[in-house]
Specification:
By secondary structure, this protein is α+β, with helices and mostly antiparallel strands. The protein contains 2 helices and 10 strands; from the N terminus they run ααββββββββββ. It has a single domain, classed as minor pseudopilin epsh fold (3-Layer(bab) Sandwich), CATH 3.55.40.10. The protein starts with a helix and ends in a 16-residue tail after the last strand.
């Protein structure tokens, strides 16, 4: 029967790490960390930009389907000066039995802010052009149709980095264009979708 102490003495030199192995491992980890951390700052703002755009894109898809289901006009209002947006509902969706529809006004929930460092660069259509200031409204009629629209977001710290959402009014298709050269994509004019 083998002696336990003899077996333990034979394994002990192999059980741990040498100082050299630990130092080499720490050196490799620190080199990887040095390469990743400076580049991390470019990913976070880009993720905020894309996150804000995707949130607006999802809300537009929701409003289009709500307009079709309810048979009512639904709108998304953008405040280009304060970098926020909200959904605007028609007055009759708030109608109770004791109210007259003619006395009601449009209503909405609170404004939704864009993520930190993300701003509106503009919004508009190919017929009237892109506006950069004021309130801009995207309307879906009772059938879920809208004019062809474009919403452009950019990073406040990097104005050359733009995220553009194109909405096709008749089909409801949305397309995303990302640019890093500061150029705003043009929304091509399509006659039947720019009403």
């Amino acid at each position: 029967m083998p002696d336990r102490h003899a077996a333990a003495e034979q394994r002990s030199p192999e059980a741990g790490f040498t100082l050299m192995e630990v130092l080499v491992t720490l050196l490799i980890i620190s080199m990887l960390f040095a390469m990743v951390v400076p580049n991390l700052s470019t990913f976070v703002p880009g993720a905020r930009l894309e996150g804000s755009g995707k949130q607006i894109q999802r809300r537009l898809d929701f409003l289009r389907s709500e307009a079709q289901i309810r048979g009512r006009e639904m709108s998304l209002e953008l405040d280009l000066d304060r970098d926020r947006w909200r959904v605007v509902y028609p007055p009759d969706l708030r109608l109770s039995l004791d109210q007259d529809q003619s006395t009601l006004e449009e209503w909405s929930f609170d404004w939704m802010e864009l993520e930190t460092g993300v701003v509106f660069s503009g919004a508009g259509d190919s017929k009237n052009g892109i506006v950069e200031r004021g309130l801009y409204r995207i309307r879906f009629d009772e059938y879920g149709f809208a004019a062809d629209q474009m919403i452009v977001l950019e990073l406040e710290s990097e104005p050359d980095r733009k995220w553009s959402l194109e909405l096709r009014g008749l089909t409801g298709a949305t397309g995303v264009t990302k640019t890093n050269d500061g150029e705003r994509p043009e929304l091509p004019f399509v006659g039947e979708g720019a009403f």
